[in-house]
Specification:
- It holds the Pfam family Zn_peptidase_2.
- The protein contains seven helices and three strands, in the order H-H-E-E-E-H-H-H-H-H.
- By secondary structure, it is mainly α.
- The protein has one domain.
- Helix 2 runs parallel beside helix 4 and helix 5 runs antiparallel to helix 6.
Length: about 230
Amino acid sequence: MIYGYYDSTYWMVIIGIVISLVASSRVKSSFNKYSHVRSLSGITGAQAAQKILQAEGLYDVRINHISGNLNDHYDPRTKELNLSDATYASASVAAIGVAAHECGHAIQDANAYVPLKIRGALVPVANFGSGVSWFLIIIGLFINSSASQLLINTGIICFSAAVLFHLITLPVEFNASARAVHILDERGLLTEEELKMTKKVLSAAALTYVASAAAMVLQLLRLLLLFGGRRRD
């Protein structure tokens, strides 16, 4: 309900939640399935990452073991490749694929891949925007002054920065996965059949980013429909 009226845009929120849950379920299912398939090479995710980084001449990237599951990530600020419990010491095709994907980000960083640089620059802006957007919108809704619509519009603009971050993340993640598949094939770290399995894991993971971006876009559209150009009587 918005000021006593039925919120006909709430279906956008529901769709965003559903697609995010479906994508998250799919990546967990895919990873769990192929995390039980041991690679013929017998190398772990950490070892695969080390081989890939050395082959690419990236000797300044440190590989770390972090606690958790599927929270693997590369930090371009510290040049650290952080592999989770499910990846670091596992010799499964899923773990090797995830490790190679994170190496893809390290290679992007070394090659000054433009979308990665843009995403990095957007991090503080997106964090600030997502943090203050709803605060500004809510304040704008409850004050009765000429500044009301200005606050609401500023809140929507701030939220747009977070949406832009999610959108620029898509080419970054897709490119990292493409690099991973190419490297694993080129270096012979996985067999042809194992590579097919890894592609399924990485494709499922990519869908989570698509779902997240779609949910954010739907939320932005909802804000525009509800509050964009709103005028007080």
